[in-house]
């Protein structure tokens, strides 16, 4: 596994661990899935850095970043990310690459700060309507999820965990402005997770198609050999999707 050298930077939200490589722009900002670490990008980070600046980071409560002391909903997470980028002198506009839950934050960031975004890649991203899929799970799985959630308040850091504020994040997306007219690529895993019912997979497929319709530039790529982590199972496809977005964004920026 290729290592990703990390450093830390102080922000008003707390100390954040991040990695930066490459040069030129627009900078590609890799936004992890729920509680995912920088290392989850090891199969794409260095390859993208050969073409442009790339940044990955650990949100509060992950890896070497500080533990959170306030609710980690979407607005708090977007604010902390912008603080990191400003402190590290990584200039906009950015290509936001959001995996899973990170896709909600990319969605919110793009709506709140459209002038800072040159393109978006949603990587098997969460959709605001995915919350309803929990009701399609078996009673056993729903029970396990509820039991696990009971333990969060017992830990000072875990009670502020982002997974406890997904509904609030979705509300923030609904209240934000419209999604900007920028290059948009939706990479969707084609394989059904083993524990997911067929009807839940159908809901998810429809939600992925709905993400494509966020703007008129949206297009979908299906990672047919992948489940929820195309960046690990089909990294070449993800790298190409990101670099295609970078290429289009560069052409658009030259016209401005």
From TrEMBL:
**Pfam families per UniProt:** Abhydrolase_1
Q: Which domain of life is it from?
A: Bacteria
Q: Tell me which residues make up the AB hydrolase-1 domain.
A: 26-131
Q: Which PANTHER family match?
A: HYDROLASE, PUTATIVE (AFU_ORTHOLOGUE AFUA_2G14860)-RELATED, MONOACYLGLYCEROL LIPASE
What is the protein name for this chain?
A: Pimeloyl-ACP methyl ester carboxylesterase
Q: What is the lineage of its organism?
A: Bacteria, Bacillati, Bacillota, Bacilli, Bacillales
